[in-house]
Amino acid sequence: MTGSDAAPQIDTSRPHPARVYDWWLGGKDNYPVDEELARKILAADGTAVRGARANRRFMHRAVRAAAEDLANTPAICRRSYVNGTVVAAFEEGVLERFSRMLKSCRSPSRRAQVLARVMARAAA
């Protein structure tokens, strides 16, 4: 891949709050640098994991309540939940670069090719 076709990169040399949070919740979308900071925070504040889990439970209750208010199903709301990795990518500007890259592709088939390359690279 060259130029604007290059897959956006996430900076894994510095910890990111969303990935630290992911580590506290037992997720897999974090890196050693995130785990290191998560452990340091946990050493200073032993309630960090308990707080993250309580926040997750609250988020689930809030989504369920919103689904009921909107006459929507919780399954639809679950599908709309944004993963911490996506939030981290957004905050680091990766999604904006990816969006520009896709918009620069004139044909749907070219967009599909670029998307397939990015997804394959992300899965590697």
Structure write-up:
By secondary structure, the protein is an all-alpha fold. It has 2 domains: 13-84, no CATH class; 93-124, no CATH class. Helices cover 69% and strands 0% of the residues. It has 7 helices and no strands. The protein has helices spanning 17-24, 32-44, 48-69, 74-80, 84-91, 94-104, 108-123. Helix 1 crosses helix 2 (32-44). The protein is flat, with a radius of gyration of 18 Å.
Which key features would you list for this structure?
single chain; 124 residues; mainly alpha; 2 domains; 7 helices
Question: TL;DR of this structure?
Answer:
The chain is mostly helical.
Average predicted confidence as pLDDT: 76
The dominant shape is flat
Work out the strand percent: under 5%
Structural class: mainly alpha
Oligomeric state of the chains in view: single chain
Number of separate domains: 2
Q: Write down the Rg.
A: 18 Å
Low-confidence stretches: none
| Helical fraction | 55-70%
Supply the number of helical segments: 7
Q: What summary fits the major beta sheet?
A: none
Order of helices and strands: HHHHHHH
Amino-to-carboxy terminus distance: 15 Å
How many strand segments? 0
